[in-house]
Amino acid sequence: MHETSFMAMKHLLERLVPRQAQISVLDVGSQIAEAGHTSYRDIVESMEAVSYTGLDVAPGRNVDVVATDAYKFPLPSDAFDVVISGQAFEHIEFPWLTMLEIARVLKPGGLSVVIAPSSGQEHRYPQDCWRFYPDSMRALAKWAKLDCVAALTNWPETRLFLWGDTVGVFYKRRSPDEVPQLPDLELERLQSIYRSLLRFSFVDSLRTLRRIRRGG
Fold first, then answer.
1. pLDDT per residue over 92-127, tens digit each?
2. H/E segment holding residue 67
3. Less Cβ crowding at N or C end of the chain, within 10 Å?
4. Cβ–Cβ under 8 Å, residues 159 and 122
5. 3-214 CATH pick, 3.40.190.10, 3.40.30.10, 3.20.190.10, 3.40.50.150
6. Cα–Cα distance between 39 and 6 in angstroms, integer?
């Protein structure tokens, strides 16, 4: 996971998760695939009274629950207050089906945050199928009958470098006529975080270009 994704998730969780509340968080696609990479567990476990569960399709580092079928989580319905996922949806062949499972395990009144690349070199773990834009997030929400309360792409990073992210924030209504009442996500601040981290993207891009030139 790159630094921009980590900082974006940290920004959003700090605004979405009430302080000192008993909150359960599920991380879909939690496995740390490469040495030296971080995970969202570090963010969640730094928050008071918040529990973390990592789910992936294979056992490995940072995986608490194994879902051998990406479209059927071995978890009960309405079980988690928050479901997050970062740098996973591009590797899922049918992410709209995974989104249905996220909606199923999310409690009514719960929130989901999905971060997925908007651009970037092919990176197969074990496949690389998709890139996402704000309309992608809105389409996933529509399919899963969730409200997409925010969707944005960090366009400066996307345009200047090999890698960019799109962020989607989703809400599961308690009743059909409920109007979501969410805290201010400070999306302008989120964009400024991306801009301040462009130098990290520049370094990542240089490393990627070197790998391409080496044929790696």
1. 999 999 999 999 999 999 999 999 998 877 777 788
2. none
3. C
4. no
5. 3.40.50.150
6. 7
